[in-house]
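Write out this protein's structure.
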Amino acid sequence: MPLSPPAPRQLRHTRAITVEAFLREDGMWDLDACIRDVKTHDIELPSGRRPANVPVHDLKLRVTIDRDMVIVDAEAASDAVPYPGFCDAITPAYKQLIGLSLLKHFRLHLKDRLSGVLGCTHLTELAQILPTAAIQAFADDEMANRPGETASERPYELDRCHALRLDGPVVEKYYPRWALKAVPG
């Protein structure tokens, strides 16, 4: 179902976030993430005038993960920032992502290492979407290689969202072995 028709309005700002997942020849995966902010009009920043349609932010983050979704390498780049020479000085800090698991409390550890003045607000925000992007990247490979209903491990996607809650109809229909049944009485 689409959004309702909007009130009359004028586009002033676009934030675009993309994540591309690449399977590498060595079996690792690269997640290349980008966040870009563009204004439709000229703006005055303390650092100078930014013309319309020239990015205020153009930030990139690449993490390399293994099959267990543990980050084995990370790098950040700041191609456009509001304060050149200052905003972009923090990019080496994103090496601190190395060793974190995208599946085990990633956002909590990210906050501990890179929130506030420890990192760039926009790069840290961008990093927060990496776990679900990685799961989507792995999904078709994992589904194809998943053992049948006799597997002892519960599929990782279950109980991670509303539709896939263990007591819901989707799990009952498509993953009956893992469905929580209401106890009578």
